From TrEMBL:
InterPro entries: START-like_dom_sf
UniProt name for this protein: SRPBCC domain-containing protein
Source organism superkingdom: Bacteria
């Protein structure tokens, strides 16, 4: 797996960005910035350390799918680590086999560093080579959308 990193400066306090990014107060803020990945992006679960989380959306046929993950760490307004370990195919959870083995155990980490009202949001993503171009195009757009939400 390859580790990709993305960073953006946002003119807002870390606690506000953390809340908006994870959709803590209002899930729609999470859905707005993750719409860059899939217009129907949402999550089911909670952000507490150790909790199971579904990151889901629907495809062009309306079929539900996505990632199954565990919240490996959550230090509010500082650091969040998500460990992906399976995929959701409709209502079926797939946590082993060829579809999952290539990337299972990969992490997605968010770090928030605030200085004088400006927060640097750093995202680190483990991915397979075949998704690098997609992420390199989509993550910057998603972070720009988060910035737009946080600064308005």
């Amino acid at each position: 797996m390859k580790k990709l990193q993305y960073e953006i400066n946002i003119n807002a306090p870390a606690n506000k960005i953390y809340d908006l990014m994870l959709g803590i107060t209002n899930k729609s803020t999470y859905e707005k910035w993750t719409a860059e990945f899939n217009p129907t992006s949402t999550y089911e679960g909670s952000w507490n350390k150790g909790d199971k989380m579904y990151f889901i959306g629907t495809d062009e046929n309306g079929k539900r799918g996505g990632m199954i993950a565990e919240i490996a760490e959550n230090k509010p307004s500082q650091f969040v680590s998500i460990r992906h370990y399976g995929i959701l195919d409709g209502e079926k959870e797939i946590t082993s086999g060829e579809q999952v083995e290539k990337w299972a155990g990969g992490h997605e980490n968010y770090t928030f560093n605030e200085n004088n009202g400006v927060t640097i949001v750093k995202v680190e993503v483990d991915t397979m080579e075949e998704y690098m171009d997609y992420f390199n195009n989509t993550w910057p757009n998603a972070l720009n959308k988060l910035k737009e939400i946080a600064e308005n």
